[in-house]
Amino acid sequence: MVKLTILGYLHEHWAMLVLLLGMGIVLYSDVHLDKKMIRRISIANMMMFLYSISCYAETYLGNQTEYSMFRPILSAFNYSLITFILVTVVMIMFPNQKGYLFFPAIMNAVLCFVSIPTGIVFYFSEDNHFCRGTLGYLPYFINALYLFYFIFNLFRHSKAQKEDLRLILYISLTSVICLLLPLFASDSTSHWFNMTIAVNVMLYYVFLLQKYTKRDSLTNLMNRQSYYTDAERYSNNITAVVAMDMNGLKEINDREGHKAGDTALQVLADCFWEAARYGQRVYRIGGDEYVILCIDTSENEVLSLIERIRQELAKTSYTCSIGYAMKTDDSTIDKLYQLADAMLYNDKKQFYERTGKERQKRRI
Q1: Is the Cβ–Cβ distance between 58 and 118 less than 8 Å?
Q2: Which of 106, 275, 339, 361 stands the most exposed, by the fewest C-beta atoms within 10 Å?
Q3: Three-class secondary structure assignment of the chain
Q4: pLDDT truncated to tens, each residue of the chain (364 aa)?
């Protein structure tokens, strides 16, 4: 007869424990993520650790010939914990969600524990066999709701760069598979679920750290280094460069302070992001300087992009100057940027002539 031992548990969950412990060590010394994000990842890791212990104990009791009163308690705990793990992962991926997102998970936990005396979700026969009650598929339904909500938000934020979407789609797909697998597999798949979620959380943590090397921390746009990398990577496919420069940033900084200036830069970044379409990659390459690399984009599409930018800016109290250049047979990316910057300079000159404002150059 298989015994319930620490060595047995370690044999089954060693890989996950190494992964979770490693993440704990890395999170302890992390200086990039905010405390709320670190706390959520730590909570998810702790829940996965508890889930692995509970699943190991429940599996052991399920292999016994005699029914134990602890088995329904562990089953209720496991069903509840899976849902809380999923909702926590959603909160990690999309941190701006509200607390009411936990309501279905709480309802699921209540019904699972109510099922211990009533059998409404699950019960066990006298010979220790698991049986589903009237609401037997409720935990799967609620977990499916969370995964649907996750995928919905994924596509709602579909303007992310395509390399970002690849990883998030992978995380979503593997999570869906591990949710559906128990419906079709007769053996225990709790280890698969636990390990998959642990790996996915680790992958997303690495993804978040990677963002700090690729993205501008103030605006969340791609940064200057990403601009240089992508200019080389997509050099054969870039058909246009659009340059943007904010009007009056120094005046805002002098009059209202640098915090107001940072807000203005963030608002402009959001406008450029909203205006961009697939193949139009937005970067902040300096103080108030922004660039869009247009991949396989016609001149009419570039003009439409610029018009959308102006429409988005019209909703704010800020303005910017814009220039663009289309690729020719002998033009390089640097040459395109110089031409776009020259058009931008003329646009800025006309702005100050038209408004009568005094143009203030920033101090170096």
Answers
A1: no
A2: 361
A3: CCCCCHHHHHHHHHHHHHHHHHHHHHHHCCCCCCHHHHHHHHHHHHHHHHHHHHHHHHHHHHCCCCCCCHHHHHHHHHHHHHHHHHHHHHHHHCCCCCHHHHHHHHHHHHHHHHHHHHCCCEEECCCCCEEECCCCCHHHHHHHHHHHHHHHHHHHCCCCCHHHHHHHHHHHHHHHHHHHHHHHCCCCCHHHHHHHHHHHHHHHHHHHHHHHHHECCCCCCECHHHHHHHHHHCCCCEEEEEEEEECCHHHHHHHHCHHHHHHHHHHHHHHHHHHCCCCEEEEEEECCEEEEEEECCCHHHHHHHHHHHHHHHHCCCCCEEEEEEECCCCCCHHHHHHHHHHHHHHHHHHHHHHHCCCCCCCCC
A4: 457 888 888 888 888 889 889 888 888 887 777 788 889 889 988 998 999 899 889 888 888 888 888 999 999 999 999 899 889 888 887 887 888 899 999 999 999 999 999 999 999 988 888 899 999 988 888 988 888 887 777 666 655 555 666 777 787 778 777 767 666 655 555 566 667 777 777 777 777 777 777 888 888 889 999 999 999 999 899 999 999 999 888 888 888 888 898 999 999 999 999 999 888 999 999 888 999 999 999 999 999 999 999 999 999 989 999 999 999 888 899 999 999 999 999 999 888 888 766 655 543 3
pTM recorded for the entire structure = 0.68
Question: Tokens 């921390």 sit at which residue?
Answer: 217
Measured in degrees and rounded to the nearest 5, phi and psi for residue 46 equal -65, -40
The residue type found at 262 is D
Residue with tokens 């399920």: 62
Residue with tokens 């508890």: 50
Tokens representing residue 260 in the block: 């107001």
Query: For 257, phi and psi rounded to 5 degrees?
Result: 100, 160
Under 8 Å CB-to-CB from 350, ≥6 apart: which residues?
none
Separation of alpha carbons 58 and 54, rounded Å: 6
